[in-house]
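Reviewer comment 2.1 asked that we show a complete input and output for one of the modelled complexes. We chose the 4-O-methyl-beta-D-glucopyranuronic acid case, as it is the one discussed in the main text.
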Amino acid sequence: MLKYLSLLVFCLLTTGSLLAEDGYRLWLRYDRIANEDLRTAYLDQLRTFRTGEVDTTTAIMQSAMSELRRGLGGLLGESIYPARAAQNSEGASLSLQRVGSDEVAAEGYRIEDADDGIVLSASDDAGFLYGVFHLLRLVQSGESLDGVSVAEAPRKAIRILNHWDNLDGTVERGYAGFSIFEWHTLPEIIDQRYIDYARACASVGINGSVVTNVNANSLIFRPDYQEKAAALAEVFRAYGIKLYLTARFSSPMELGGLETADPLDPAVKSWWTEKVNEIYERIPDFGGFVVKANSEGQPGPREYGRSHAEGANMLAEALEPHGGIVMWRAFVYNSDPEADRAMQAYEEFVPLDGKFRDNVLVQVKNGPIDFQPREPFSPLFGATPETPLLLELQITKEYLGQGTHLVGLAPMFTETLDADTYQDGKGTTVASTVAGLAGVANIGTDRNWTGHPFNQADWYAFGRTAWQPSLTAKEIYEEWATLTYDGDESATNTIVEMLLASREICVNYMTPLGLTHQMATGHHYGPGPWVANLGRPEWNPAYYNRADSMGIGFDRTESGSNALAQYAPEVQAMFADPKTCPPEYLLWFHHLPWDWNMQNGERLWDELCRSYQEGVEGTQWLAEQWAGLEGQVDSDRHREVSQYLQVQQREAAWWRDASIAYFQSLSGLPIPAGVPEPAHNLAYYKSLSYPYAPGIRPQW
Ligand code: GCW
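Response of the prediction step:
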């Protein structure tokens, strides 16, 4: 008997710890506060709870109340039941207060330590929900509520996740399993994941979700799929999240049987109008469409000689009576070998400024090419004063080590947001020019949602940045690390330092000194700087590095493509001269001889080699930091991250060696001291293939 009992206890203990730290709870871990003094202090402040006159029966308020019960119940170890008037109205308590929107803006909130306790005020339900998450965050991070005075409102109205999820369950550029949206069991089955997804999004202020891939499928507009989408929308609604869909431009042909999708054709227009009306019957708060048109084979208005504005406006007109919007992507480029791909979105969209309807936003990737480890900001930001723009950031990590490398993206987000476009004088940061942020999600069916445990930090960072773009990467990671791990202050600091340093480490081992798009073909995993044989010139790494026996880099100054001219004069002045151009953008803007003298006195070739080496050493540093945390973070996630870090170290060396082997075959220069010779010859690196990336059919 004793034997069985001890076995049972053993099982409970082990399963308990496995369940506790498998990452599913993300940062919303509401474990009982270990420090008894702190727990008691919070209990004294929060034990009673008054909802006052606030109507808590609406869907969003129900979510807020249930989160509060769950959160405080877990953290304080005692159930807290909100009541209109607290049973014991003596003494301090937590209470809700509805105020006018002149006092607290839409979706905003205040948390204050008032005479009769902690007061959470908001002017709408979403504000209360966000306020509850903020309050829980404070308690979970052990921040004192004495004298607390928080006043928050989102800086950007649109804070939206873009899922590149296909209706067959696969996720384009997704590295964390399959889509969490189960089209085959919707609308009847409401997976708990949908609710937890919505909770997580709301906890960081995300208020929109595009559940389908921009490489779109018109089937989503069929009534059966609309029913399914409506079921998701209902879950999201309770968390202040609007559902959006991607619109395939040729849907009237594929689904409606029309002969054209010409946006000026009356039959096409009325097809869309009816379709939109149908959607709103099922989803009254439907957000609208995201459209990828005339880009990478997607259909669009240009096929009919119509502009992007004419295409977008036709959809916008159908959505307008319902309050819906169109997010029209600027990610367009053609395959003209003479053209500089970095210039094309600007060339296409700046002339259309002023031609879009009011409910159209143009969605622009952070850089002019495509989610690279580093790019300068897109010149479109600030260049379309009459057209609201959305900043599209990548949270998934195509081109950035995909699912396996530890690369924290917050420094990249803030680098773009803080960049000064000078379009309206000094201080016209990218952040100030955009109406909202769209993030390409990194979420899948993996138990911990994102594959690599640290990828959760990017989801967190996206939401927090979109809410408040002036937050620093450090502030955001401090929050995340505190909430997600239980380590002491020094362990938390180590995690934060790792995340902060990791993006630059990745830039160094993949694409240092302004190089870009050096990844292998198709799956974009691993190095392929020699690739020059693809059907479209601008898909070739060699197109981007322009390396030959004389030098390396893409001349985007007056003597080259002059892409630089698309920026404001102040920005041009920063980059125009290779002698003063910041080294991180040097080969983006300049083609230079191998023996070019860098600002630090190093020869370009030597600096390039050393940068790769620095990247590799950076991955070793990451691994050492993490090894030092053994015993300070839970063993499951410690082991998992350690394994990933080994992969990253090996692959960083692969990047360094393959890149140096290739560039040396052109420069003919010796490898500088401190940088090892490549482990293999160039032919070896060229022969490697990587048939494992998700979405790539394994080949013999
Ligand atoms: O980076 C490229 C990706 C495509 C993606 C495209 C886009 C959804 O390789 O997979 O397609 O960007 O942003 O539309």
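The domain at 509-554+591-687 is CATH 3.90.1330.10 (Alpha-d-glucuronidase, C-terminal Domain). We note this here for comparison with the apo prediction described in Section 3.2.
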